[in-house]
């Protein structure tokens, strides 16, 4: 059984860079199409190119793959990066819903999908706790 969260097992399970970028693209597509996601989509700039790249590079490193984010964008504290936004339970849950829906169409194992959404809920909650309310 794969031990997600050890070494690069999660990065491998996500399909490496191609798989992570596919997930990120679908995540933002869900944000634009789901009624629940439109409020959090409005928190972003019209052009999603940079934010998609930032999320993909962050996730690659977070999943145990190459740590490319700092080389391109510098260091990051995810909670601090979101402190200027109003993020309550509704926004946290909408973000997680968009990610859950994006995961449904990924070619990931069901075990990995479940593991990943559980792991993503942790920083999502930390962001909620540190953001404006």
Question: Can you tell me about this structure?
Answer:
The chain is mainly α and 133 residues long. It has one domain (13-130): Globin-like. The protein is built from 8 helices and no strands. Helix 2 packs across helix 4, helix 2 crosses helix 7 (89-104) and helix 7 runs antiparallel to helix 8. It starts with 8 loop residues before the first helix and ends with a helix. 26% of the residues are buried.
SS content category: mainly alpha
- What is the fourth-level CATH superfamily? Globins
Low-confidence sequence ranges = none
Shape: globular
| Rg, Cα atoms, Å | 14 Å
Helix share bin: 55-70%
Q: What is the helix tally?
A: 8
Rounded mean pLDDT score: 95
Order of helices and strands: HHHHHHHH
The fraction of residues assigned to DSSP E strands is under 5%
* First-to-last CA distance: 41 Å
The count of domains is 1
Number of strands: 0
Main sheet attributes: strand count, strand direction, barrel closure: none
């Amino acid at each position: 059984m794969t031990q997600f969260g050890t070494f690069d097992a999660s990065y491998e399970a996500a399909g490496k860079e191609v798989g992570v970028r596919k997930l990120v693209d679908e995540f933002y597509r869900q944000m634009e199409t789901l009624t629940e996601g439109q409020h959090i989509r409005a928190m972003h700039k019209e052009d999603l190119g940079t934010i998609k790249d930032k999320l993909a590079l962050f996730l690659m490193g977070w999943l145990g793959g190459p740590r490319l984010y700092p080389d391109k964008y510098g260091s990051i504290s995810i909670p601090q990066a979101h402190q200027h936004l109003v993020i309550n339970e509704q926004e946290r849950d909408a973000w997680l819903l968009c990610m859950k829906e994006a995961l449904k169409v990924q070619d990931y194992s069901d075990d990995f999908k479940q593991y990943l959404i559980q792991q993503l809920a942790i920083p999502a909650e930390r962001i909620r706790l540190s953001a404006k309310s």
